[in-house]
Amino acid sequence: MRVTDYFTEEDVLEIEGTRRNSKEEVIDLIIDALVARGRLPNKEPFLSALMEREALGTTAIGEGVAIPHARVRGLESPVVSLFRFKRGVPFGALDNTPVYLIFLVLAPEEATEIHLRALAQITSLLRDQKMKESLLAAPGPKEMYHLLREEDEGEE
User: Fold this and answer.
1) Choices 1.10.1530.10, 3.40.50.300, 3.20.20.70, 3.40.930.10: CATH for 3-154
2) From its phi and psi, is residue 58 left (phi > 0), alpha (psi between -120 and 50) or beta?
3) Which tens digits make up the pLDDT trace of 20-32?
4) Cys-Cys with 34: which of 39, 52, 66, 118 at CB 3.0–4.6 Å?
5) Hey, which residues are catalytic here?
6) Where along the chain do its domains lie?
7) CB count, 10 Å around CB of 94?
8) Rounded to 5 degrees, what are φ and ψ at 93?
9) Stated pTM of the model
10) 69: closest CA among 108, 126, 33?
11) DSSP label of 39
């Protein structure tokens, strides 16, 4: 299983910046973007699930990266999306750095193994400093997706 099996080039979004000044507002923004694109049927259960997870502790892993995630009742299949913010956004990172890359992972409530495997693969990808720098420097979402796809194919 590859992380890019769960999302397509259209699920990589770039956001110029935001006036949002809290993690909650950033999560609201990304859920709105997924609803608008038809990736999620509505907002509330997903927003609630992510906020409940964030209440347990930040999903900002540091060095400009966050991986908000939750398992959601009623979701039929995993939803994975990558957001790149040209200007960093606040996300409560333990290293107090703004976040530029947000990998969102939503999984069906009963899909614990898939959820954990996706998180592990994303974390592994983003631990690679060169990969992180390449994602940040890529000209656009299409190139970001292809970088991830190439890395996934190299792991097989």
Assistant:
1) 3.40.930.10
2) beta
3) 668 888 999 999 9
4) 39
5) 69
6) 3-154
7) 10
8) -65, 145
9) 0.90
10) 108
11) S
